[in-house]
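Q: Here's a chain of 175 amino acids. Please give me its 3D structure as tokens.
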Amino acid sequence: NADVAHELRTPLAGIQTTLEVTLARRRDPEEYQQALRDCLAIARSMQKMVDTLLSLSRLDAQKLTIRRQTIPLRALVESRWRVFADKAFDRGLNFDNRIGEDLSCACDPDHLSMIFSNIFDNAVDYADEGGRIWVGAESAADSTVLTISNTGCTLAPDSAERVFDAFWRQDASRT
């Protein structure tokens, strides 16, 4: 709970600060609209976080409903990547989708999209400037193996052991 509370405090502080600064003096209508757009973007990001937490809770309780359908994997990866493409460009990162056009998989596209978004967000945040992110997939008779990789960042051995801990961050100010 403390980890979740910490994750939600930052966007809430962003909304509060934006509103306080905006209300501090009279502004042009365009400035008010921009402040509202900024707050809406933060609220949408928080909604995604809450949705993810609810899905994780349902998964833990074994009450997650899976809606399986066959989807073209490359197209799903491309659609999820578009959300992070500008951020990756700003950091000088290159993206390579190596999944074949004809590869499909049976999955729940909404849940897989959520997983892709989380992984791509982390891959962009934690790749070294000018690095690379690439995605590949192989299909077998009854499964599809997907690999998402990045050039990573340098970690001390004790940090490397913790990268898969829930809510862990190498940045000590966020732990």
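Q: Can you summarize the key feature?
A: The radius of gyration is 19 Å.
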